[in-house]
Write a structure and sequence with these properties.
Layout: E1 4-10, H1 14-25, H2 27-34, E2 37-44, H3 65-69, E3 76-79, H4 86-97, E4 101-103, H5 107-123, E5 128-129, H6 140-147, E6 152-159, H7 162-174, H8 178-187, H9 197-200, H10 203-217, E7 227-228, H11 236-244, E8 247-258, E9 261-272, E10 284-292, E11 295-302, H12 306-321, E12 340-341, E13 348-349, E14 351-358, H13 363-373, E15 378-386, E16 391-398, E17 401-402, H14 403-413, E18 424-428
């Protein structure tokens, strides 16, 4: 194997630009740690003339990134464009076919096309590395693939989206509204200024869950009818009420095996204040793995941003330079199995319900009767009246309730004329 490696970087946004600087400034460190010299020989971006903090070397700039993937002199390609399809998929596909190692932080691409691309990498005996796709700088994927390779993992869960975690933490600390905290997050660069929807609705976390599932359980990427809920409907009132109950609200990504069936989900959860996951705040991510014989393992760190992401990308680079040609998902594609999907409707979980109601006799009784109809029993109840508006907030913690029954019950509340807003439902963890 040559002692010199030619590197290409496609995508010069925030992450790509940071990465390019790291590659240029840490060549000596890379040489010392791997014995390999790197040369940056190709770069590409959507807009060559965009104002940047650095000058683009026009001698190595490609207007068409696909030409880079056809260049036989390229050894390793960084894809930092970020879409699941289009040019991102074409570029990675072409590079792998031409026996070029690929490194990417693109969770959308891997969660959608990871099976196909990993098989392609395996057939061409090159690496497809995506450590940065989950948890930013947290080495969670390499930990599963290598550090815990002989363990039988049964469950993985955690805070997988820093934007949502920041918003929920800030709402608790400042007592401010969701809308105001979101604006602050956008100003600080924690949330997309234009459309932060993918962070807030749970999609970003779900893509990461799918990757974690596949690595942890040696299965193909699932197309399950997943449970995905975001944080858009959580109000300051909910934060305040659960605080009184000694809980915090966290958006969790969870994947586990139940009776040999895969159960993936992303949704807000009530977590106890005295738990580890309940004290992960701000933009931090944390992943907890349960397995045998290791028991419980915890990894925490910054989950996004150019610094942590670039750290993971550089880790993948050094792995390739050291000659670690390995299966993208830890085992051969032939040995990765299709897994049966757990029926969500059979799942039971304790619930937090908040209902805004007319404050008059008989309302509470009618609500508890509806709950009883669907076999949902009350464990704890708080009623907060608003005498001026003649309304009340009723917050209920239930015993374990069947998911299907819960859905039916929530739907039935719509017919109750004394309930003036759609109920808020948050599962306990």
């Amino acid at each position: 194997m040559s002692k010199e490696f030619n590197i290409a970087v496609v995508g010069l946004g925030q992450i790509g630009s940071y990465l390019l600087n790291e590659l240029n400034t840490k060549k000596k460190d890379i040489l010392n740690k791997t014995g390999k010299k790197i040369n940056i020989v190709a770069i590409s971006a959507k807009n060559k003339n965009k104002k940047r903090t650095f000058k683009i070397n026009k001698k190595i700039f490609y207007s068409d990134p696909l030409k880079i993937a056809k260049d036989k002199n390229i050894d390793i390609l960084f894809e930092v464009i970020g879409s699941s399809d289009g040019i991102s998929k074409k570029l990675v596909e072409l590079a792998l076919k031409n026996k070029i190692h690929v490194i990417t932080p693109n969770k959308a691409l891997i969660s959608k096309h990871g099976d196909y691309l990993s098989k392609l990498a395996e057939n061409n005996k090159v690496n497809l590395e995506f450590e940065a796709s989950v948890g930013g700088g947290i080495p969670i994927l390499r930990t599963i693939k290598e550090g815990l390779a002989t363990n039988k993992i049964s469950k993985v869960y955690g805070i997988l989206n820093g934007t949502s975690n920041y918003i929920l933490s800030e709402m608790e600390t400042t007592k401010n509204s969701f809308a105001n905290v979101l604006k602050k997050a956008q100003l600080l660069g924690y949330a997309e200024p234009g459309n932060p929807k993918l962070d807030l609705n749970g999609y970003d976390a779900l893509a990461k869950v799918k990757i974690l599932s596949s690595l942890s359980f040696n299965n193909k990427i699932s197309n399950s009818k997943y449970l995905m809920e975001g944080i858009e409907n959580i109000e300051s009132k909910d934060i305040e009420i659960v605080d009184q109950l000694n809980y915090r609200i966290k958006l969790l990504g969870i994947t586990e095996i139940i009776n040999n069936h895969l159960f993936e989900r992303v949704h807000p959860c009530l977590v106890k204040k005295n738990t580890y996951i309940g004290n992960v705040n701000g933009v931090m991510n944390a992943v907890i793995l349960e397995g045998k014989p290791v028991g419980e393992s915890v990894l925490q760190g910054e989950g996004a941003g150019p610094g942590p992401t670039s750290s993971a990308l550089m880790s993948d680079l050094l792995s390739i330079l050291r000659g670690n040609i390995k299966f993208p998902f830890g085992i051969s594609d032939k040995k990765r199995k299709k897994v049966k999907i757990y029926n969500i409707n059979k799942y039971s979980n304790a619930l937090y319900l908040r209902l805004e109601v007319k404050d008059k006799p008989g309302v509470l009784s009618s609500i508890t009767k509806q709950l009883a109809k669907y076999n949902i029993s009350v464990k704890r109840l708080i009623q907060i009246p608003d005498h001026k508006k003649k309304t009340a907030s009723i917050a209920i913690i239930t015993h374990d309730a069947n998911e299907l029954n819960s859905k039916k019950c929530i739907k039935s509340f719509k017919a109750n004329k004394n309930i003036i807003k759609s109920p808020v439902l948050i599962r306990l963890f």
